[in-house]
Amino acid sequence: MCWSKVPSFPVLRLAQRCEKPAVTLPKKERRGGGTRRTCVYFSFMNPGVGVATLSLRHTCYNRAQNMNRSSFIAAYLANKWEVPALLRDWHEDTMNFLRHDAPKILLVVIVSFVLIRLLRAITRRTASLQAKRLPSGLRAQQVRTLASVINSVGVFAIIFVGALMVLAQLNLHLEPLLASAGIAGLAIGFGAQTMVRDFINGFFILLENQYDLSDSVRIAGVKGTVEEMSLRRTVLRDDDGTLHMVPNGEIKIVSNMTRDWAQVSLRVAVAYSEPSERVVNLLRQVGEEVRNDPAFADDIVADIQVPGIEHVGNGGPTASTR
Asked: What is the per-residue pLDDT for 118?
């Protein structure tokens, strides 16, 4: 078809006038590949074959343009038809979520809120009742502190469980979240293990009421009077007036000298010439007078004991009483 319509002699004349036809081609014309260069080469060497190749190149180029237009139109129509379908899918997913998942999530939130309010009411009521029954205001303060700790731990547990249930309703994978939380908890545990140990030990000190404020205790090798207590530390003041801050995690053994009752041992040095029976009777008489004294009667809970002469040294015998 292209062979008969295009005459060959103009191409033959053009070939006779050109000396280097292949070199004069611009670069942008050579981007088409080997077909266009072959077409020009054969148009100078063989007019018939050259015209046929050039016609074939023109036909292929038109077909490519038609295919590009068709592809663009098809993509445009596909996108135009895809958008309503996508919106319809989103609408269906939203309605399914509102019908099935949203009520469950709302129920979890409401139950969690009710449990938190109930826990706070119970802890406050219990702490108030215990504080009224206790005679000491110091112990009542410890009970309120303990109730606050229990309330905080309970609220955290309720929120954590509720959050996991909500994430499960949203079809989120909890395995990576739990793994990340486990790794973070492990790292925090290693970094703050001393502080965690202090808080845990302080919690059990308050729970078991091992000592109160103004008690004379010996803890962590330090003896003194308790002036301040918290979940993390205990503050003591010794006989010299030095203030010691002892972390609760360091407390292994507690020696309380003022819990329930305490015993005072007195040693009295006497002369060698004094009879031992007379010394013992005199100490017992003084002990009875002290116990019957109204100023000391409330502090003495048992009779004074005088075992007798305990030690005989260079300065003379020593009698003990307690």
From this structure: 92
